[in-house]
Design a protein that fits this description.
It is a single chain. This protein is elongated. A hairpin with a 2-residue loop joins strand 3 and strand 4. Helix content is about 20%, strand content about 35%. The longest helix is centred in the N-terminal third of the chain and has 16 residues. The protein contains four helices and nine strands.
Amino acid sequence: MKKILPFLFLAFVSLFIFSCDNKDDSDSDTYSRMRDITGSFTNANGYAFTQGININQTDVVLVYRAAGNAWQQIPKSVYLPNSGTLPTNRVFDYNFVFDSQNVQIRIDDQNFDLGTQMTPAETTDYLNNQRFRLVLVPAQSSKNASVDYSDYNAVVKYYNLDETKVKTTKVN
């Protein structure tokens, strides 16, 4: 019995050593979160604005634009209707780029002068006080995620995000 007791004690202790191992593959410090950004696109800001963020290099940023009571994922092309004396086939893209410190939301690829070739209603609808929602998703939780990222409501449900706790920032 005296010879078996040390082996039992060793087995018992090793059980606790392995069960207390903190080396798991998930990053418990990062979690999905959202932030609203409101800003206006103008010639003065180069039709772009930047918001600071702090994420890991491997994390993912999703950006959605408020469109009435819905959210549409960007990049998104906007085709403006032909309107009297204004050029025809006017189109521009809402787009974004990001790194671990910043997200820049901008208008790309316009084939007309946004400052002079939009109606006042179009300027109000597409350039002034535009609201965007940033969804910051940790890379670990976005791997193999079976969610349609173009569907804002599916993303909120999948990542269990609380829309009542969204921080809002006015950038310009």
